[in-house]
Amino acid sequence: MAFWWPLLVLGFAYAICKFLFMLIPPNVPSIEVDASDVSDDGNQTQENGFIYVPPRGRTPQAETKVQCYEPATMKYLGYFPALTPDEVKERVAQARKAQKIWAKSSFKQRRQFLRILLKYIIEHQELICEISSRDTGKTMVDASLGEIMTTCEKITWLLSEGERWLKPEYRCSGRSMLHKKSKVEFHPLGVIGAIVSWNYPFHNIFNPMLAAVFSGNSIVIKVSEHASWSGCFYFRIIQSALAAVGAPENLVDVITGFAETGEALVSSVDKIIFVGSPGVGKMIMRNAAEMLIPVTLELGGKDAFIVCEDADVKHVAQIAVRAVLQSSGQNCAGAERFYVHKDIYSSFVSQVSKIVKSVTAGPPLAGKYDMGAICLQEHSERLQNLVNDALDKGAKFVVRGSVGHIGEGAVDQFFPPTVIENVNHTMKLMQEEAFGPIMPIMKFSTDEEAVKLANDSKYGLGCAVFSGSQRRAKEIASQIHCGVAAINDFASTYMCQSLPFGGVKDSGFGRFAGVEGLRACCLVKSVVEDRWWPFIKTKIPKPIQYPVGENGFEFQESLVEALYGMNIWDRLRALVNVLKILTEQNSPANSKRRDD
Length: 596
Fold this sequence. Notes:
globular, Aldehyde dehydrogenase 22A1, alpha/beta, signal, seven-stranded mixed beta sheet, 3 domains, oxidoreductase, Ald_DH_N
């Protein structure tokens, strides 16, 4: 007891000191970001500016400017240049110069960059969400959930664990290399290219940027032509934070344009991260193949939402509506197929209907609306076509939500939340990614049938399974071919930023987030060195030195059995033979014969 007492006191004192140290706030400087040209009076009405009418039937790639407008009001926001291939290559060249400097930066400097960003985000949540809302049509609550919380979670994970997972990782050297040390090193790749979608303009920029910069890379991000206005403002935040830690200019860059701009980026960088549609993802992969650069593709999904008969119907109904209506269906892992056990089907549909009836869509900054606008031009028409195809094949309307006061020019930008039953897999609505506020509900009778229905899709991003038995829910989820699964919840996997995120099949491949996503931004290098240098070095045994001795193969055969034999006696016998051959080989008479 006398021996352990001092150790206990020291351990307790250490814990107290560590706790007190945690109470001391870190010294994080504030940054100023000019927002004067993006501020709005909050009254999202037509009178705030002239209404933009996007040209129909014209190929946007032929334009030299990216025109920006609020989808909820069609208010004009401005334009940004569509960069040419030569301009893109010049931006990448500048980023490459900056990366060579940043690769030598310390983790302390990188963590300070993250803290500055985190401080700004927390202090300017309303501004960030408002800009996202104006550019994509989502509500402030949806922007907070999908933009702010996810980004803050990623930053805090990197602050806590990022350095740990980028340090050299020592591995077992195996039986034949016991005298060696083996490790994996993680070096920056160089310039990362990211082509990101419009649905979460803030997070989709910060997500690849944070991983790339923390791992010592530079990054050039092409923002969507449907969210360039917000993306270019968010870029100012990053620039200010980088300047505050003395990072080189052009370490991070945001570019605007259309397909030509993206193609030029793919051909110039060392890795590409793409978030978008399967069709464009395949084109990017073909272009990347020409340069033999790695790609990470997150290509959307059509997640299955399974509700077993022992689930809490009222509770799950609320989650289901949130899952499909968040940001007008702009979920990063959209629940688009709802499978409900036949015993609770009527009850579930009734609960969902009550909720949807209370949902009103409208300009998110003009009043208290539960759902915003559709971001993409003419997307409402596509959604209606999916609904019409389902109705023609026997589906039925259950309920539709309402649309609030909207301007005449923005009518096509809103689609009322819609619940449909009697659906089946012959309908396009159950096969094609809708990306809209539509909830198609289908019955199932057994767990096996639910799994079969969930797997009957070309997508494989995620799933959500609800059951009163957690074991049952996990068993069902384990059989669904997808990249992420939530048990008795929806999309919670993405809020756990220690987990990798990505899918299979037409949902893409590769992962971002978590250890896997962080290390995906690295050159993974295997290194082997002598464990007891210079006392023990690798020396080629005489039987297999050139010229190879007559007993060279016998030596190798015995060596293999000595190292990997199935039992200890076989290995010992082989070891004796190895030593015997070496002894004979090293005898003076044998050495003289070899010299002759």
